[in-house]
Structure formats: C-alpha cells, structure tokens
Amino acid sequence: MQSAIVTGFGKVEYGQANWELANQLRSNGSVFAAFKAHKQQNELVEKLVDPATGKLKSFAQWKTDCGPTIQKYNRVWLKTEYDTAVKRAQTAEQFARARQTQHLYPNLRWLPSRSATPRELHRPFYNKVLPIDDPFWSNHYPGSLWNCKCGIERTNAPASDYVQNTRITQTPGLDRNPVEGQLFTDTSPMMQGATNPQEIRDEANILLTRETRANMRQWGKENIPAPGLLLNVNAEEFGTLTVRRSDIKSITAKPHKNATEAYSLCSQLDRVINNSEYLGWSYDTKIVQPDGTVKQKHQSVGHWLYYRFKLKGEFSYLNVMYDKAINEYRVYCIADDKVFDVNIIRFPARK
Is the dihedral of CA 182, 184, 186, 187 positive or negative? Predict the structure, then answer.
C-alpha cells in the first residue's frame, strides 16, 4: 500500500502542498492492510479443524487447505488492490492540485479509460467537462471501480451540458473521493466483521510508526556521513545546522502523539526549520544535587533554540541545541504541544 501511494501520488515534502493529504493516505493504507491481514488470519484459523471429525488437522493438511485462501488474498486480490490504490492515490493528487489551480483551470475533464476492454459504467462520463466544485465529483471519479483506468485533467474549456441522471452504484470500499484522504473506505468488505476494529486501527498506526522510525534511521545511515550533514537553512539565529546519525536516533526515540508524521520529517529538517516560527532561546537547565551543588542537565549544551510549526493542524516544536563541545547547532527532538512547555523559553523572540 505504501509503495502504491508513492507511485500514484508522488513524493511530497513538508511545506509543500498536499503533504498532509499524502500522510492521510499513508495512514489509511496501513489500516486497510491491517484489516485485510486480520480477515485472512481468521479464514486460516477456521481451516485448522476438520469439520467432519472436529479434530485438529495435521500441519501438512492444513497447509494444503490454506493454499486457495493464500492465493486469493496474497496474489489475486493483492494485484487488484495495488493497481486500484495507485489509481486512487493519483486521483487524490490530481483533485488536490486542481483545487490549487482552480483560478486558472476552473473545470475538470473526464478522460476515457486506457483499458483495452473498458467497462461501460464510466463511459457516459467520457470527455465531460464540469466545474471542479460541482457536486458530481463527490460521487463520480476515476478509481471508483476496481482496476479503473480512467483519468481527469484540468481545463479552462467551457463546461458540458450537465451529465444526465447517470449514477453508478457505489463500490464498497471505493465510495468516497480519495481527495478526502482515504484510499479505501470503511465500507470495504475487508473492514467488515472485525470484533475489535479499534484495536486493529491502533495496531496499524503503531506498525506504521515503527516502519517510519526504521526507514528514517536507515536513511540516516545511507545519507549522513560520519562527520554529520550540513543543512541549508535560512535561520538568522545560527549559521549552519548539522544533523548526525545519532540525532536521527534521538528524534525517533522520543514520543509524539503524531509520531509517524513527526519521524518522517527527519529527512527534511531544513524544510521544517525554513517553514517554522522562531520562538526564542534558553540556557540549559540547572539541576541542584543532594549535596547542594548545581549541575547542568546537558553538559555539552551551551543553549537551546526553539521553533514552532504546524503538524496535522496542531503546533509541534523543534528543539535545536548548540553543542559547545564541537561548536555545532543540532536538532535534538520534535515535541508535541502536550509535552513542550513554552515557559522554558527564557528569552522570547521579539515580535
């Protein structure tokens, strides 16, 4: 599912349009995959017992009996789901981009299917031109059928006569325009019948966070040299910002209520800084020891700089430390608004 989203939607970075939408699709794709795995698991469990005798089957017999189910889920259906996910991710990106350029291209044209044997359900819409904000597009869009190969394009051509009352039957799981952030909707057969749906959703999000953490740490190994990577930032508070592999581990080890999205920013910290608001700075915290002596909490830190940016519509905070031991500014963590205490900023930035 993640590969399908990248293929269909394309890669976007923080600060670019549609970054939030891409993350919504990623989350939805992982949830769909988790529900599908759960449903397949239940079918395999049902095959453990011989219905005629009520006894547990041998492993060899169970493996043989599971063959058709595995073939169905992991090959036949998976290929269709992948192709449809690519199309729906592409459709989501196209609709989102069309909204951004609506002042130039106010209408959309439905492009005919590229399939060698196109189905008839979408044929009445071929080459029709309608305004981007026409209610028609809420229920009719490429990707509303499995393996759909239709398309859309932006245009300033005049709108067609309104499409007659031709309404396709909504396909379960594909019954909402993916620009709303869902590759597959809750009406999908894969997402029906689960006894613990919220647990499955929570587990899917945990697994996606783990995957993102692993991917970012691997990115650090492959892209950050041993001395560190200098980032191109336009912050006036310091000259250069260095990211080391250990910083990636530090960022991805700290909790965040939107951890998947926060961790994914490790490979684009320069963009985050450049799109953030500088809040101010502080000296490192002093800790009074039992014997009355005062000790600095982070021995190598000269001072801290704090930046604020939006993540999923809420504020998150980037903590940058000045490492006086090696004369470098480095990112320490990304904190959410429940963890970050603005009162630690001793010297607020001038407004």
Answer: positive
| Alpha carbon distance 188, 178 (integer Å) | 14
Q: What is the pTM of this model?
A: 0.86
Predicted confidence (pLDDT) per residue in 233-282, tens digit: 888 888 789 999 999 999 999 999 999 999 999 999 999 999 999 999 99
**Each residue of 180-205: pLDDT tens digit?**
999 999 999 999 988 899 999 999 99
Integer distance in angstroms from the first to the last C-alpha of the chain? Answer: 45
Domain-by-domain residue ranges, the chain? 2-195, 198-348
Contact (CB, 8 A) for 208 and 32: no
Asked if residue 316 lies in contact with residue 257, where contact means CB atoms within 8 angstroms, the answer is: no
For the segment 303-328, the average pLDDT, to the nearest whole number, is: 94
How many other C-beta atoms can be found within 10 angstroms of the C-beta atom of residue 160? 14
Give the residues across from 335 on adjacent strands: 317
Higher-confidence residue of 47 and 234: namely 47
CA-based R_g, the chain, Å: 26
